[in-house]
Amino acid sequence: MTTPMEQLDVAFPASLPEALALMANEATRGLPLAGGTDLMVQWESGARPVPVRAIDVKNLCELHVLRGENGMVVIGAGITHAALRRSELIRTAIPALAEAAATVGGGQIQAMGTIAGSIANASPAGDLAPTLLASEARVVVASVRGERELPLASFILGYRRIDLAPDELIVRFLVPARREGERELFRKLGPRAAQAISKIMGSYRGSVRDGVVASFAVALGSVAPTAIRLPEVERAVIGQPLNEATIARAEQVAAASVKPISDIRSTAEYRQWVSGRLVRGFLEHLAGRDAT
Amino acid sequence: MKRNFNVVNKSVRKIDSLSLATGKPMYVGDFKPADALIVKMLWSPHAHARIVSIDTSAAEQLPGVHAILHHGNVPRIVHTTAGQGFPEPSPYDTFMFDHKVRHVGDRVAAVAAETAEQAMAAVKAIKVVYEELPAVLSIEAALTPGAPVIHDEPEAHVPIPVPYEPQRNLAARVAMEVGDFEAGLKEADHALDLEYYTDYAQHCPIEPHVAMAHLAADGRVVITTSTQVPFHVRRIVAQTLDIPVRRIRVIKPRIGGGFGVKQEVLLEDVVALFALRTGRCVFWKYTREEEFVSSRTRHPEKMRVRTGVKKDGTITAMGLDCITNTGAYGSHALTVVCNSGSKILPLYRAANIHFVGESCYTNLPVGGAYRGYGATQSSFAVDCTMDELAELLGVDSLEFRRRNAITSGETSPVFRALGEGKAGVEQSIGSCELDRCITLGARAIGWRKRGRWQDKTGRFRRGIGMAALMQGSSIPEIDMGAASLKINDDGSFNLLMGATDLGTGSDTVLAQIAAETLGCDMDKIIVYSSDTDMTPFDVGAYASSTTYLSGMAVKNVAEKVAKQMLEVASAMLECKAREIRLENNRAVRRDGKSVGFGEIALRALYGTDQHQIGAVSSRISHKSPPPFSAHFAEVEVDTETGRVKVLRYVAAVDCGTAINPKLAEGQTEGGVLNGISYALTEQYLFSPKGKMLNAGFSHYKIFSMRDKPAITTILVPSYEKTGPYGAKSVSEICINGPLPAIANAIYNAVGVRMRTSPFTSEKVWRALQDKAG
Amino acid sequence: MTTMKKIQRTWKINGESRTVQFPPARRLLDVLREDLDLKGTKEGCGEGECGACTVMINGELAVSCLLAAGQVRDGAEILTVEGLEKTPGGRLIQRSYLEKGAAQCGFCIPGMLVSSYAFLRRHPVVNEESIKDAHAGNICRCTGYVKIIEAVQAAAERWPADEGKPS
User: Fold this and answer.
1) How many angstroms from the chain centroid is the CA of residue A273?
2) Could you tell me if B153 lies within 8 Å of chain A, comparing CB atoms?
3) Identical fold, B17-25+479-619 and B301-475+623-772
4) How confident is the model over A110-147, as pLDDT tens digits?
5) Where are the domains of chain B?
6) B710 Cβ under 8 Å from any chain A Cβ
7) Domain A189-286 carries which CATH code?
8) Band of pLDDT at residue B449, cut at 50, 70 and 90
9) Cβ within 8 Å, pair C145-B673
10) In the structure, what pLDDT confidence band is assigned to residue A197 with cuts at 50, 70 and 90?
């Protein structure tokens, strides 16, 4: 059966330079198409108009790097969720990212969807963004004009908006590896375990020295138009003793600082409550009490 | 009474499983010719509107477009899409296309084009001017005096004499009273008055609705469709298109799941009319979104349960007032709400019984048949009430159910009072092993260790709940099953049935019944179902009727054929027919001398007194023997987030003789998980204008393997004398348990009563917040 | 409306070399079913959620309803349900599904089987949890999954040592 996509032209560049050359020219550029797990659904359902042209970036080998260097993990744009969760490097250096990748859809979606696709879709409910935000990941984008590197936090501009020029492609992510003494965790509260486009989720990375919170970065998804860091919460706990008083305060601050909307999945009130409980769970995890 | 079986009660392999596992083409979509025209429908964007004008001229000019149907160019014949026996108990309130739309997703116009893309383009090019009308978006709004009238067309009526008041949005009403209900309440030491609500749900067969039609060489319309009711499809399409039944042939290949939703004639009229108008093969398959919005759903239902009980545990009064929301059309409106009473009220003895069932129209998606059929909703209300009554009395709720439940030899006045669109049929309970189901299920779940919620602490709290259930087996004195059987040269048999295997394995089960009766191996039975030109009439697969009712027809036809075989064999073996037994594919004389079935066939077909050994048989039932079941759930409630996780589930079921135990287990496991999914997550979410917001699997979650708890099925054998080899039904009862069992388990864990489905995390969290004050 | 230019791909489908031409963004599902007449792969939702259209491409699972066929490059190895009977492991899984009564309506089964195959050929640690994780993208409404899990467990016990490679 034919579908609207049959009218879509797709270019199949053999290399990244070839892809960037296509992107440079208005007459040849197209929407980057990798795993298709978001775009194809949106095109088929009519939620997003089918563009004139797409550029296949799934098969560009330059986008499939995955290596550690100088305390940093370099993750190519085309790395899939399946590759993330299977990678020994990721599981050691950014375990929360492996966890997050494992909760995305089923095995098929994990094997198709890519890290860049997840970020470029810029859904508030994207699974990978909170962990990448909490680990202060940076994005490298490229065009024929050269490469540009920027923090993920500034790359995500708003609801389904990213800081990407029409001629640019996301090429890789630079994610600081977990340092000695740092703990991290990803948690998701969905309507059910499998395949949930997550209701509320979050990730943190932090460390404790002599009973005091030395570092703490936390980010939540599905509580605002984009995945967000919670700077008020971070300020409220860093430098404080990791005790019940601090945790209780962090929980309060978290619930107060998120401004979720009510949508078809849950009400704002419930999201605020759960945001607080997630932050509490993270701090308890940091204190060595395992949250479930 | 035969109880030592050769083929029956054995888990023989499902006869179609090899072709299923190798991906052979079997479903409607697999047979679509490359040049078939594709249908796309223009659906109403409004919940309630009049079509002022419709202009298809631009659309008709588009490339690839062959025909467009709308209210201006099709017969205007009022009918129901409910695939029920004739005359239907559902109101005639539907036209193929109307000049009024009654819900978002109602039909406006259909296009048949060379490709789906061309059809979509044409749909978009159709210009419609609507006059929007105020919409009715809840049961309460529908029944408010002065509410907008959804069916104001003069043609609307019910073809049988039952209450129907479309001018006040009442699609159906039924009532019964036994004894003096109010007096019963006064007599009670404790009384309860509780309200329950169950939400919309969709069946979600993995194969959505799909149908195809072409013209045969002789000009007849051949409809190939994924349906549970091929003969009703034939009749209703003939009615809708105003053509004779003889011009239509309906073929049902494999069905990719039904659960009731394919007991509805939704696509066949359109593909048939397009085939007649274009002369081409025409194909239409629903998208998943269309399946949610424009097919059928479980009727949402509001229930009020009023009961009284004496200190000694005697129930003095049982009252049930139900109102279902049938949506824009009254498909199954009356019979679903009838079943809310008739499939649960007989379960517990009460001297005074009150029941009122109503169904109202709204401008929302349309209700229909869904596994459980009204009993799913009312089992929730009644069984949770039982739990509360037991608590009031301070007795174990399991013992309370046991004390009051109906048992073998007893009858209930409800059977007589409540039928489907007419009075019911009196019956006493034959087989009933509910008591043993309760005992075995309680042991398996560890009922005695469940404790009280008051004693439980910590963030995660566990609880155990139960439910007792009954259903029926076929609709007595309304439904009919039939089969035909003939022998082939090699002693194999063609078993032709109108019964439709919708994935349940009924082809296998019915073949087992035939093989048992004939004394042959399973591989000698060649099953064919269903084709209205080839197979005898059968109402189809619904109302838990196939094993019981079609099974009786198969047993009977096999007995007739066996008798004919014995006559031939007696001539061959030179003895009296009664001295011969049919076993192991042979006719065996008392002294052991025998002839094979193939030899019998050859003699009959080619030898002396040539004739075709074969017969047709049909059966109705005068009873609807209930299967019984006890369900148990263990849950864990996260008191922080309200998340409910089902840890273990036990279903003990008395379905009489399980003709195929493995398939009976499979029915139970599937129904249970569907029920759990419904209890915890499934619901329709609507915009303020009545548009469904979560019409897709990414926002309407059905349980995946990752969500599955441990499910234990215990088949508790009984022998139903009226059924084939002691069998009763099994397919529907299993879906009714999870709502009450889980609700009762949540109470046992954390002390909150969930009376509105589904029990989402947020809802349970709110209940916990409210309880904490 | 213009007709999109077609591209050509040569794949190894179920061990057989097949060349096919199609508009570049045609869904792989449609290419398989309509252009290559492999009807075993089913469409249940068209949104990647039900898994009825699951196939294996170069050893990785994919939902063919969300894959522009052009993205599958020349030389790719594609396995659909029709290819299972050509391998000992595939036949084993099919037999196991039959023995355990894992199929009811059967519409989800082709995709489910491919997921089972992709799972077992990695020689994974097989337990209920890993089986559930490996099949979470395949929805079945009929069976409650009980007998599917039993079938995968049974196949795992007899999995040929030389089929597939460790995960």
Assistant:
1) 23
2) no
3) yes
4) 999 999 999 999 988 899 999 999 999 999 999 999 99
5) 17-25+479-619, 32-133+209-285, 301-475+623-772
6) no
7) 3.30.390.50
8) very high
9) yes
10) very low
Chain B residues touching residue C40 (CB < 8 angstroms): 22-25
In one letter, which amino acid is C117?
A: Y
Query: In chain C, how many domains are there?
Result: 2
Is A40 an interface residue toward B (CB < 8 Å)? Answer: no
Min Cα distance A48 → chain C (Å) is: 14
- Nearest chain A residue to B117 by CA: give it: A3
- Minimal Cβ distance to B503: which of C99, C142, C146: C142
| Pair type for strands B37-43 and B282-285 | parallel
Instruction: Note if the pTM is more than 0.95.
Output: yes
Q: Please report where in the chains the tokens 């467990």 appear, as a residue.
A: C153
Computed over every residue of chain A, the mean pLDDT equals 92
**Closest C-alpha among C166, C158, C53 to residue C119:** C166
Tokens 């009959």 — which residue? B604
C-alpha torsion angle, residues B89, B93, B95, B101 (rounded to 10): -140
| C12 within domain boundaries | yes
Q: Do A106 and C135 touch (CB under 8 A)?
A: yes
Quickly list DSSP for B243-297. Answer: --GGGEEEE--B-S--TTTTSB-SSHHHHHHHHHHH-S-EEEE--HHHHHHHS-B
Taking CA atoms, B381 is separated from B237, B252, B255, B378, B497, in Å, by: 38, 37, 33, 5, 38
Name which of B13, B24, B670 is nearest C142 (Cβ-Cβ): B670
User: Residue B1 has what pLDDT?
Assistant: 53
Question: Which domain CATH number covers C138?
Answer: 1.10.150.120
Is the Cβ of B772 closer than 8 Å to some Cβ of chain A? no
Q: How confident is the model at residue A292 (pLDDT cuts 50, 70, 90)?
A: very low
Amino acid identity, position B386: M
* Cα separation, B761 vs B742, whole angstroms: 13
pLDDT tens sequence across B124-180: 999 999 999 999 999 999 999 999 999 999 999 999 999 999 999 999 999 999 999
Q: Would you say the CATH fold of A189-286 matches that of A5-56?
A: no
Mind telling me how many Å the CA of A127 is from chain B's nearest CA? 14
For residue A248, report the phi and psi dihedrals to the nearest 5 degrees: -65, -40
Q: Is A215 helix (H, G, I), strand (E, B) or coil?
A: strand
Closest residue, chain B, to A105 (C-alpha): B698
Q: Which residues of chain C have pLDDT under 50?
A: 1
User: B301-475+623-772, which class in CATH?
Assistant: alpha beta
ipTM: 0.97
Nearest to A41 among C25, C47, C68 (CB): C47
Q: Clarify whether residues C67 and C97 are in a common domain.
A: no
Q: What is the pLDDT of residue A195?
A: 40
Condensed to tens digits (0 to 9), the pLDDT of residues A268-279 reads 899 999 999 999
* pLDDT tens-digit series, residues C25-43: 999 999 999 999 999 999 9
At the topology level, CATH places domain A5-56 in 3.30.43
What single DSSP character describes residue A71?
T
Structure tokens at A269: 């009130």
For residue C89, give both structure tokens: 């492991």
Q: Given a cut of 60, is residue B191 above it in pLDDT?
A: yes
Residue type at B77 in one-letter notation: I
Burial bucket for residue A139 (CB in 10 Å: 0-12, 13-18, 19+) = buried
Instruction: Name the residue in chain A with its Cα closest to that of C22.
Output: A6
Average pLDDT over residues B686-699: 94
pLDDT, residue C166, reads 66
Q: In the structure encoding, which two tokens stand for residue B336, read together? A: 């679903």
pLDDT digit string, tens, across residues B465-476: 999 999 999 999
Instruction: Tell me which of A43-57, B195-209, B675-689, B753-767 is least confident.
Output: A43-57
Indicate the residue of C135, C138, C141 with minimum beta-carbon distance to B205: C141
Please tell me the class of the A61-176 domain: alpha beta
Of B19, B99, B7, B89, nearest to B52 by C-alpha is: B99
